[in-house]
Amino acid sequence: MLGWEEKEEGMAVQTNQYVVSSGREIVLLDPGGAHVFPRVLANVAELVDLKDIRHIFYSHQDPDVSSGITLWLSMAEKAVVHISELWVRFLPHFGVYDERRIVPIADAGGRLSLEGGNELLMIPSHFLHSTGCFSLYDPLSKILFTGDIGAALFPKGKRYPVVENFDSHLPYMEAFHRRYMASNAACRSWVRRVSSLDIEMIAPQHGAVIQGRENVKRFLDWFGGLRCGSDIVDQIYGH
Fold it and tell me: Each residue of 163-173: pLDDT tens digit?
């Protein structure tokens, strides 16, 4: 996980970035916006050779995920971008015009094949919160990269990188998920899809990673029962 040294700023949400390595083939996950690009680039360059970056995976289209896309494509000249097919037509607004470097992800998801026969699973997580978004599962590390699912927003000075006590961590997740996730139906659909996977860690785009099978199970149970979005729309509108 990259980005934990990112300064706490009132106007900028904290973001996590991730790197998956398979042989000399590198995948960047949600590398972030222009705001964090210099820091993330320096972090990545310490770990890998930039010319080995072959894939850039975007869980969804939000600017804190993807607004640095042109900068990354200029530095990782052999990389292609994997993003929901819904957002491909929006990429020119970020300055991306070369269709050869874009691999649209169909709504049903798919597999990202890597060197040595390894594969990452692209799992639909639509409406959680974006209308077109995906989780990414690495069967070797048993990590599920979840984008905004599992995100936590900490009070200033209270951040930590790994969840040790799920009960005390829950308040940092609850308000975000109730407001940003579309509905319990969407939550339950995603939980059904991922429950058959062997998951040892959930790695979200914001906040702490959820580590250990017991914590993962507790999160999935909580998320599958969450009332959010359209379920509580009258509360959100103030009625």
Answer: 999 999 999 99
